[in-house]
Design a protein that fits this description.
The complex is a heterotrimer of chains A (526), B (274) and C (323).
Chain A lengths: L3 H10 L17 E6 L14 H10 L4 E3 L5 E3 L2 E6 L5 E6 L13 H15 L1 H7 L2 E8 L2 E6 L20 H4 L19 E7 L3 E6 L13 E6 L3 H10 L4 E2 L9 H5 L4 E4 L8 E7 L9 H10 L2 H8 L5 E2 L23 H10 L11 E6 L7 H15 L2 E6 L3 H9 L5 E7 L4 H5 L23 H12 L3 H18 L3 E5 L4 E4 L2 E2 L16 E2 L1
Parallel strand pairs in A: 1-10, 15-16, 15-17
Antiparallel strand pairs in A: 2-3, 4-5, 5-7, 6-7, 8-9, 9-10, 11-19, 12-19, 13-17, 13-18, 14-18, 20-21
Helix pairs in contact in A: 3-4, 8-10, 14-15
Chain B lengths: L1 H6 L3 H23 L31 H37 L1 H16 L2 H11 L4 H27 L3 H8 L4 H37 L10 H6 L10 H28 L6
Chain C lengths: L2 H28 L4 H9 L4 H10 L6 H13 L13 H36 L4 H15 L2 H15 L17 H39 L2 H8 L4 H31 L1 H6 L5 H10 L3 H29 L7
Helix pairs in contact in C: 1-13, 2-3, 5-6, 5-8, 5-10, 5-13, 6-8, 7-8, 8-10, 9-10, 10-13, 12-13
């Protein structure tokens, strides 16, 4: 077991950096400094939802609802809302005092456009959620009525800023979303508005003076500074040059150093809303991946406890199924689990006819890696390669860059790939898309890339999504977890609890399970 | 023999030779010395040197550093020696032709060496390795391609001065063909400086290979000293040995080679002052 | 000074640069990896229509000789093309970063020369002493040390173990210093990478100085000076050092050329925003115009440095005639 105390002791022996750090409120301006690996391609979050865009745009764009720690919907851009008893009719009453950053009033037209046109077109999660909508009506400037074709009990959960940010109709309607110049100077309703973008240096957001929440935002400027290497990000946090380290900013290797730093606060609950699981996906169109015994053998061959404890320095929890253990509808009793058992793995492979040939190799295949510059993904893949070699499976690690990864995964040109999927509050939003046969779309990433087809699973997911009572939904999801874990519908490795670290000079930084996706509107100087 | 006496005149050269021999033995014998290979994950990560079972500690993913260091010697020596052989081969050939025939051929060679002097050599190497896809072979070829000019210059100089000597004239008179004159008459006399710079070139090639691996342009399936340093950039902040130990191996190896080069210089150029 | 010689050298520079452009153009075009794919990937999506548009926009669908001619045309006007990855003019990108590299190089050159000459002259004055041997051993050591590892050891000692100096970048991030504070900040950041670059060359300077001074000290005009009654120090300063300058000036020119093209590793270790880092990113991102632009700018600079070195050489040693 990794001796945390020894590591903490070692970390404390290295004092925080001594050279002078400038005053944090020059000219009285209250500044938040955050980091990013590199410039994002653009700032239109629905267009290509990467984590950094999600975090930056969380300050600029908002959705109709906010969610508290219990995942209960709270008013945001929507002042109040009603749902009909049959679950088919939703009415949202919008606030009347919200302005877009360019001064144009936010109205029902924007909601109708976002939910009806732009988001379904661009964002796979919204497409799935909003496919249940039969019609959207705007009886007056501040009322939106959604008529669903069948009840969808996760409909309200779709309105998180990370899933459905409201986009300005007057900017995007009728334009080609991909080439719209406002992708580089985004307009939103949020507490901070876009100020400038110096590529290679920073993205600068400034206070929205006309923000509709009184007293907010509590700070004046937000800077996302380019900090390409993990060492640089570590030093930036230690010296206080940067106040916030989000999700994967700090490599797990050195997190212990920051945990020991008295100037910093660490939260592990800032990403509860995402419910992320690190997975590997097999191309089930190819033998032997099509056989569930191979997939079961894979899980038996890899010591996932070691993966979490050693390779990831204890940051995570072994995942046993498609739904994270602390998410709603998780049902531990029905899961088929696959503990570390290389002998069992070999037996399964023998049984299915994947026997060792000359040289002891049963099967050779490739694992397409995530280009994370030697980070935890690379280490995970290296350990898994070794573990599989013990049971006679020879793996070639394929190093690719991001464009190639997206292309090959979307076009199913892989044996096995690595990914990380978030549930985003409800299995109907974030989980089902990977197992529904209807979501097998060539050329589109973040879909059912494996080609998993099970009509029973399709039926259950659809039923659960439209179930009116929670009990009914739970029954469906329990049965789903039972089937999917028996089938080994995906190679679930471990649940990720990314760490969120910030400097004690700030408070109110993490206000809910969505953490930075909801922006820093509430943040103030401590 | 006079050669041996002159070669081992300096204690530094003796030291260098012994150290180099040890490194060669470790490189050749590493598969026999260890039960597992350098890429095997065998324990908890970032164990300090001296931990039970981990003489040199473990790296960021739980690999045995000692095994990695031993296998790294194989890569360094392999690339260093192969690339130098290739560079010497190319350089001798082109330098001999240019030096022997002179004129336009010589001019062409001089322009080529100038070209290589002016463009940023390491950047060119990066481009070449990226072109050929990073591997052991591309490293060897790439390094050979950027280092042959130095050999060619030396060989050319030697041939220019040797070609008008009497024994060459004599060979021509008895009807020896150009090729035979070049390879059997002039080349043996031109060898000493080539041998001396060869050992330096092996050392430099090892430094260059480690730089490529450090940047991630080395063979992705092999463990070398440079890649060990490159993959410990973050780990260094909590585990100094992951970076310090592989670097020390490089320093010791190249130092030994440089000492050997000095010894060769003493042995082959006895008239040169210190 | 013969101006015709200088003019001829400048013409030669242009010719060599042309050769560099030509060869590099074909070499870099040969690297697999379609630029349009890279750029499309950067934008987050990759469909054929968009990529076709990109290829047309960058002239990638033209036959190779046409591409070359268009490129040469533009280079003659000082336009080095547009970076595939950053979508900005290459000339602007390089000019933005070049001062950082030149600043670091100048610092390294000064430290290496000053330190090396001092150490070398000390060693030369007492040949065979312990101090002399120490200088030689140190020189040998520095020849064997990989630059990138030396840089990391600097970071280890001066930032990880004893937090004394900033290990990354050129300025404190987000501080927006101005004036003297900014200068001080940059100098602080320059120390570790500058010392790393300098140490290798410092060893060479020391050895060169030592050898040259020992050689010169034996020569006639020095013996004359001593006979005339000048002190050792005066002899050293006025005569020996001055004559030892020749190999040193040559070496300085060599160092400048090496540095301009070869600081990729040190800039990488210290995340110094210079041309070296740019080159590495260009190779990784298959950013051909940027890479080619760097080749060209480096070639021009190295040729210029060589010319300056030769001129300085002729000033220092009046016996040398140019041309």
């Amino acid at each position: 077991m990794l001796d945390r105390r020894a590591m903490l002791g070692a970390a404390l022996a290295y004092p925080a950096q001594a050279w002078a750090v400038p005053k944090r409120t020059p000219g009285g301006r209250r500044i938040i400094n955050a980091m990013m690996f590199e410039d994002p391609a653009h700032l239109n979050y629905p267009l290509s939802n990467t984590r950094i865009m999600q975090e930056i745009c969380g300050n600029i764009n908002e959705s109709l609802l906010l969610f508290d720690w219990q995942f209960k919907p709270q008013p945001n851009l929507a002042d109040s809302f009603e749902m009909s008893p049959d679950g088919l009719h939703y009415v949202f009453h919008l606030r009347r005092d919200v302005l877009w950053h360019d001064g144009v009033p936010f109205t029902a037209k924007d909601v109708a456009f976002s939910c009806g046109v732009m988001l379904p077109q661009l964002n796979p999660r919204s497409r799935a959620s909003f496919s249940h909508i039969a019609s959207i009506k705007t009886p007056d400037r501040y009322t939106v009525e959604f008529q669903l074709s069948q009840p969808f009990n996760a409909f309200l959960l779709s309105f998180m800023a990370s899933s459905a940010p409201m986009m300005p109709a007057h900017i995007f309607e009728g334009t080609d979303f991909r080439t719209n110049p406002y992708n580089f100077k985004p307009i939103g309703t949020g507490p901070f508005k876009f100020a400038d973008w110096k590529r290679g240096q920073h993205i600068h957001l400034t206070r929205n003076e006309r923000y509709w929440r009184p007293g907010r935002p509590g700070m004046d400027e937000v800077y996302y500074r380019v900090c390409p290497t993990p060492e640089q990000r570590l030093v930036a946090m230690e010296t206080g040059a940067v106040d916030i380290a989000m999700a994967d900013d700090i490599d797990t290797i050195v997190t212990s150093r920051l945990l020991a730093n008295p100037k910093l606060v660490t939260r592990t609950d800032a990403y509860n809303g995402t419910g992320e699981i690190a997975v590997m996906e097999l191309n089930m169109r190819r033998w032997p991946f099509s056989d569930r015994r191979f997939r079961a053998a894979f899980l038996h061959a890899v010591d996932r406890e070691f993966l979490v404890k050693a390779i990831n320095f204890g940051m995570g929890k072994v995942a046993h199924g498609p739904i994270p253990s602390d998410a709603p509808y998780y049902d531990d009793k029905v899961l088929t689990k696959y503990p570390y058992d290389p002998a069992r793995a070999r037996a399964l492979l023998d049984e299915m006819g994947c026997k060792p040939k000359l040289g002891g190799v049963r099967h050779r295949f490739g694992i397409m890696m995530i280009p994370d510059g030697g980070g935890y993904w690379t280490r995970n893949a290296q350990y898994i390669k070794q573990a599989l070699a013990q049971v006679g499976l020879e793996v070639e690690l394929e190093a690719v860059d991001w464009p190639t990864q997206l292309r090959r995964s979307g076009n199913w040109e892989f044996d096995c790939d690595c990914n990380s999927y978030g549930e985003y509050g409800d299995p109907a939003i974030g989980t089902s898309r990977f197992y529904l046969s209807g979501n097998i779309r060539k050329g589109v990433p973040l879909t059912n890339l494996q080609g998993y087809v099970n009509p029973e699973v399709d039926r259950l997911f659809n039923q659960a999504a439209v179930a009116v009572s929670r009990a009914e939904a739970q029954a469906c999801y329990s049965r789903l977890q039972q089937i999917l874990t028996h089938d080994v519908g995906m190679l679930w490795l471990y649940e990720r609890k990314p760490v969120f670290i910030y400097n004690k000079r700030l408070k109110n930084v993490v206000m809910g399970p969505n953490g930075p996706s909801d922006g820093f509107g509430a943040t103030e100087l401590a | 023999m006079g050669f041996a006496r002159r070669f081992f005149a300096r204690p530094a050269t003796v030291f260098g030779s012994v150290v180099f021999l040890i490194i060669v033995i470790i490189a050749l014998g590493s598969p026999l010395m260890f039960a597992h290979g350098p890429l095997s994950i065998v324990g908890m990560p970032l164990l300090p040197p001296g931990s039970p079972g981990f003489l040199a500690g473990s790296d960021v993913i739980g690999r045995d550093m000692a095994v990695g260091l031993a296998y790294g010697a194989r890569i360094s020596l392999l690339v260093g020696i192969s690339s130098t052989c290739c560079a010497v081969g190319i350089g001798v050939l082109l330098g001999a032709i240019a030096g022997y025939y002179g004129g336009a051929v010589d001019d062409l060679l001089m322009r080529m060496t100038e070209f290589f002097q002016i463009i940023p050599a390491f950047v060119l190497l990066m481009v070449l390795v990226a072109f050929m896809q990073p591997s052991l072979g591309s490293a060897v070829i790439g390094i050979a391609l950027i280092t042959w000019p130095q050999v060619a210059r030396v060989v050319r100089g030697q041939f220019l001065s040797l070609r008008s000597r009497e024994f060459v004239e004599a060979a021509r008179v008895i009807g020896m063909g150009d090729a035979r004159i070049i390879f059997t008459q002039i080349l043996p006399n031109a060898l000493p400086p080539i041998v001396v710079i060869s050992s330096m070139m092996v050392g430099n090639a090892i430094l260059t290979e480690s730089a490529l691996s450090f940047l991630g342009l080395g063979d992705p399936n092999l463990m070398s000293w440079g890649s060990m340093i490159g993959s410990s950039r973050v780990a260094m902040w909590v585990a100094w040995w992951t970076t310090v130990l592989p670097g020390l191996c490089i320093v010791i190896t190249v130092l030994a080679l440089n000492f050997i080069g000095d010894g060769l210089n003493d042995a082959l150029n006895p008239r040169r002052r210190r | 000074m013969k101006f015709s010689y200088i003019a001829m050298r400048l013409v030669k520079t242009v010719l060599i640069t042309a050769a560099v452009v030509l060869l590099s153009f074909f070499l870099i075009r040969a690297v697999p990896g379609d630029a349009a794919t890279v750029m499309a990937g950067q934008a987050g999506y990759a469909d054929e229509a968009y990529m076709k548009g990109l290829r047309a926009e960058y002239g990638l669908d033209q036959p190779l000789p046409v591409q070359l001619w268009r490129y040469v045309e533009k280079v003659a006007q000082g336009d080095l093309g547009t970076s595939y990855v950053r979508r900005q003019p290459v000339t602007a990108i390089i000019l933005e970063r070049l001062p950082n590299t030149l600043l670091l190089d100048a610092f390294a050159l000064l430290v290496a020369a000053a330190g090396g000459i001092w150490l070398g002259s000390m060693a030369a004055r007492r040949p065979g002493s312990a101090g002399d041997s120490a200088v030689t051993v140190l020189a040998m050591l520095f020849y064997a040390v990989p630059q990138f590892w030396l840089g990391m050891m600097m970071v280890l000692v001066f930032a990880v173990w004893f937090p004394l100096l900033p290990p990354f970048g050129i300025e404190t991030m987000g501080a927006d210093y101005t004036g003297l504070a900014r200068v001080g900040d940059v100098v602080q950041h320059m120390i570790l990478p500058g010392m790393t670059l300098a140490l290798y060359f410092l060893a060479s300077y020391a050895r060169l100085t030592r050898t040259a001074m020992i050689d010169v000290a034996d020569q006639d005009f020095v013996k004359t000076a001593r006979a005339k009654g000048l002190t050792e120090r005066q002899v050293a300063r006025r005569h020996i050092l001055r004559n030892a300058l020749i190999p040193l000036v040559t070496y300085a020119g060599l160092q400048a050329s090496i540095l301009v093209g070869g600081s990729v590793l040190v800039e990488n270790v210290f995340s110094w925003p210079g041309v070296g880092t740019l080159a590495f990113q260009a190779v990784q991102g298959r950013d051909n115009p940027l890479l080619l632009g760097i080749f060209i700018v480096t070639a021009v600079l190295v040729s210029l440095f060589n010319l300056i070195t030769d001129i300085a050489y002729s000033i220092v040693d009046p016996r040398v005639e140019l041309g």
